[in-house]
Amino acid sequence: MKPFLWWLFKRVVLGVVTIFVVVSLTYILLYIAPGNPVQLYISSLLAKGYSRAYAVAKARTVFLINVNQSAPAAYVSYMSQLLHGDLGRSIYLHEPVATLIAYEIPFTVFLVTASLIFSYVVGVLIGLFSSKYSGGKIDSIITVSSAAVNAVPSYLLAIILLLFLAVYKNYFPVSGSYSVHQVAFNLTFIENLLYHYTLPILSFSIPMIPGWILSIRSAAASIAKEDFVNYAKLRGLRGRTIMFDYIGRLSVIPSFTRLMYSFGLLLGSATFVESIFGLYGVGSLYATALTGKDYPLAIGCLLVIVTVSVIGNIIADILYGVLDPRVRLGA
Amino acid sequence: MPSRDSLSNIFRNKIFFAGFLVFLVYVLMGTVGLLFVPYPSPKLANPADAFLPPSLKDFPLYIFGTDYEGLPLFDEIVWGTPFILEVTTIASLITIGVGVSLGLLAGFLGKRVDMALNALFEMVLTIPGFPITLILATIIHTSNPLILGGILSMFSWAGMAKAIRGFTYSLKNQGYVMMAQMLGFGNRKILFGEIVYPMMSYILVHLFQDMMFYVFGLVGLYAFGFLPLNNTNWGVILNFATSIGGAIYSPLGMYNLVIPIIVIIVYEIGLMMMSIGVQKFVDPRLRNF
Fold first, then answer.
1. For B229-239, what is each residue's pLDDT tens digit?
2. Most buried residue, A284, B7, B46, B199, by CB count within 10 Å?
3. What is the ipTM of this complex?
4. Is residue B48 a part of any domain in this protein?
5. Is B43 inside any structural domain?
6. Distance (Å, rounded) from C-alpha B221 to C-alpha B135?
């Protein structure tokens, strides 16, 4: 157990350093140069006729930066406020950044989780199916078409789906996360949510399916040659039993950890798809913040995205060790 | 051994060759094409001709129809090509250059250098690159191809470096490399002749895939307005079509969106085929498929 704890400790330290480096770099890029967003904000308040003291105090609550302090002191107090969970206030939405993100993040988590599960299930099924006909015509059709699908980025697919299934034919809503008045965990709301999220989930998950197919297929092809599979065949077990219980179960292990890694990565790349469908979520919040130059909100979103994906990576590594004892002591 | 497996025979692979032809069409479009197609200046625009469907009028100017302000789409797509090709090529070359050299350094020198470099690779690999690319693009806000190439490739070289490091480690202890050392070959000759050459196919596969993913990224950055819209490229066409032209919500705007999207996807498929072609050519197990 001890080497595991030491490994975990190293991973956590590396994760904290990563988050720290990302936030510090953004801070330096944004707030150190003259004419930075804080100074622009203060001068815009001064131009509106507010007193300097008021402008400085206001900038402090919005950006968490006290311009009267020296640069190092301002940086230290900025960091300590972030550590205490205060992410500043949004310039245009006039709300604490933490509140805004807390409201929007469940929508992104829902989108990413649903897309991952959908693409993974479809990918595993097609992958096992194609490995059964390995080398034949069906297999090469699947290989070629999955290569073609892999070449389509999710946001372009999103535009195509939106045009043909929501705008030209009204099968699905054009925009929004839900269209009922009450957000509650009842059947009407969930139905409505799924109705709004069908196209986003499809456009997010379809480009991922080929990756799962390839990884399942190659794993299944090598497992199918193992002795215990031949033995199972000799015993006269049904093809379906061999496919799912013998080959399927083992061939999902390598890709299962990639599933966990993908979660963190996707959280950050939901931006485009969420913007196209006008969904709630950290991704679209991040995009609005960036294009509107609302930097406190943008840094808040970035911090949350990076933190979640770092935690996701660590959990994935731990799970990998649990699933595959051979790597437990590695790294 | 200059057999049929030598990389110089790669063009005999049908998939690679088909992908290469697609790629060649785009390269020609972005270079020679500019000589034959007029620059999409506002003079060509005519609001009365907005959102025209594809037609054979003034062949080939109107084969893709017109955009929201009546400019021929073909014109814009041709003139938008060189920028995309330039930035994605620069970004891929940076990725390959940095990845291969740091990976070789770590694998070949080993010991402390390797420990430090490997820790760096691990850290960069855990950073979610995409959201950081977005914020960097917004802050730096430039259309300079070199800087954009740097931003796009900033986090993706680490995967390459780690793979090359692993390759180098295993090749370093192969018999033929030790033989070359015993024969007194110089370090440089061993590094490039005996170690890098066997990795060439892997590097090529990576190169084509990188070029593919950078097109996704670059077009997305322009299409969603994270970069200044001051030049013509495929992302800017999509951006203007949706933001100014309102092409999404008008059935007339279909060609303005669908045609650039198809142009982008065909280019991606071309690169994809080149990468699959190299993989199949090198890996005999995949050759039957």
1. 888 899 999 99
2. A284
3. 0.86
4. no
5. no
6. 10
